């Protein structure tokens, strides 16, 4: 489309809103209005631009995220097809427990080697100031957790401190992108906002191992944390299947 061309206007009554984060719900509304089922093809991107009123790049990014989460399949020449049921019951993509579990396990599979390697490098390379920050972030995390408050922001800050201590910003960027791809689809996996909270007590000895320079212990604890999240995910999936 030429740069000076006008952006297609959304149809009257479109589900579009002004924020990119509203693209998923607008797409879901269109899918429901059209009565599309698994195996059906979505309208072409240019038609979605016209009907929803969002930019083509924004719609394309949402469809890429859906593809990575197993919601749609995209093939050049064949278009975009639904491969999972979706709903607007809670104004988010609501896939089945099975799909949520598979998506989270895939994310952890990619995240595992990145987290373990970042912990090893941080243990070897962290400066005294970075070790002090890691210790402070661990103390903050444990205090919030023991107080029964929402520990997720503190957990995020702790892991960011570890990633920063590697001296390689790509660790933090890649891991955040992986997590964002998942959370763009699932606000609360399985309806559990605190999935993985049983791993929080392990973060204190993890910080201690990094500070002490015990690379193998830090890597072992990191793997244990990821294993626990995967085991919890698998258990929820199996209970649902049963």
From TrEMBL:
Region described as Disordered: 1-22
HTH gntR-type domain residues:
17-85
Q: Which SMART domains match?
A: FCD (SM00895), HTH_GNTR (SM00345)
Q: Which domain of life is it from?
A: Bacteria
The Swiss-Prot or TrEMBL record annotates one GO molecular function as: DNA binding
Provide this UniProt record's keywords sorted from A to Z: DNA-binding, Transcription, Transcription regulation
Pfam families on file? FCD, GntR
Q: What is this protein called?
A: L-lactate utilization operon repressor
